[in-house]
Write a structure and sequence with these properties.
Elements: E1 6-14, H1 17-33, E2 39-44, H2 49-55, H3 61-70, E3 73-78, H4 88-100, E4 105-111, E5 129-135, E6 145-148, E7 156-159, H5 165-181, E8 186-191, H6 197-211, E9 218-223, H7 224-233, E10 240-243, H8 245-258, E11 266-270, E12 276-280, H9 297-309, H10 313-328, H11 342-357
Parallel strand pairs: 1-2, 1-3, 3-12, 5-10, 8-9, 8-10
Antiparallel strand pairs: 4-5, 4-11, 6-7, 11-12
Helix pairs in contact: 1-9, 1-11, 5-6, 7-8, 9-10, 10-11
The structure holds adenosine-5'-triphosphate (ATP).
Residues 17, 21, 78, 80, 262-263, 282-288, 294-295, 298, 335 line the site of adenosine-5'-triphosphate.
Length: 359
Amino acid sequence: MKAREMAKVAVIPGDGVGKEVTREAVKALRAVTEGTGFELDLVEWPHGADRYLETGEAITDAEFADLQSNYQAILLGALGDSRVPGNEHARQILLGMRFRLDLYVNFRPVRLFHERLTPLRDKRAEDVNFVIFRENTEGVYVGMGGTFKQGTPDEVAIQEDVNTRKGVERIIRAAFEYARRNGLTRVTMSDKANAMEFAGGLWRRVFKLVSAEYGDIESEALYVDMLAMDMVRRPERYQVIVTGNLFGDILSDLGAQLAGGLGLSPSGNIHPGRIGLFEPVHGSAPDIAGKNLANPFAAILTAGLMMEHLGRPAEAAKLEDAVRACILAGEATTDLGGTLGTQAAGDAIVRRLSVADAP
Ligand code: ATP
């Protein structure tokens, strides 16, 4: 998205720790944009379990229309509450946004800030630094299929894997475009073409066609089991990984653990050039909610991805640098071995941002 001087953002703190970490992300966003001339209009939306339980409505058609026409991004904390059976409100809001806003890229950077945060032995921070482009609107998550003779010993369950030429091509192209924009030299496509020949065949054919347009970038196709092993064995090989919905879900959680776990994992749901939805990978974490224990860094890094999407790479870099600096200085929450609470960790980020701005 091209540089702009203002942006309107719907902030949905949501449930559980979502409320606590989003408060810190908003603080960081205000600090990083202050004095830049960039006008960030942060509008808080009350969507979440409380509102759903009160009104019976997760999000309305009119609200979707409002998001689509008037906003450039959505910053979400987390959705999940044991009072709502099956987390129906979360499903309606998150899946609704993903499908109705056609957010076909799930973007998951995997970036290690300090070697002590990875479970991998003998890997340095710079060895774990890649991004995953997960297809977000197709695959086995479209909910097509059915059951037959349910509840009997002869029960059959069918879950369809939907792959369209258009869907495969646009996610692969998004990955190559990202590589080119960021001076990266290799894109790895991952599938299971040896066992799933129809879907894999489409992915491989399209990957080959699209990669031919990016002669300056090396391309390779790897079976997903091979890639999962190799991400642990030699993560330093990888720069950009592109894959389908199911494999991307699994690989990106593996990636999150390689880079320090849930407290440090941001994500973006993007349709390039349109509104994007940005959320930390972790959920509402009811076990620690309301205790000032949640790590706000994933939410702050998520705010950074949002700034990048809004055409503000300088602010995005500052947010990431502030998180890195805090981690190196041991100014962090207990999950990362620090002693700070959620708010104090957010304050530490704001202090770094203010120091960075000092002449
Ligand atoms: P949900 O149902 O909303 O997905 P969950 O508890 O099942 O919530 P997560 O919220 O993703 O799943 O978290 C799993 C565990 O990881 C939590 O119980 C919590 O202990 C830990 N955790 C998650 N997020 C954070 C965070 N920001 N800071 C510290 N610990 C966290």
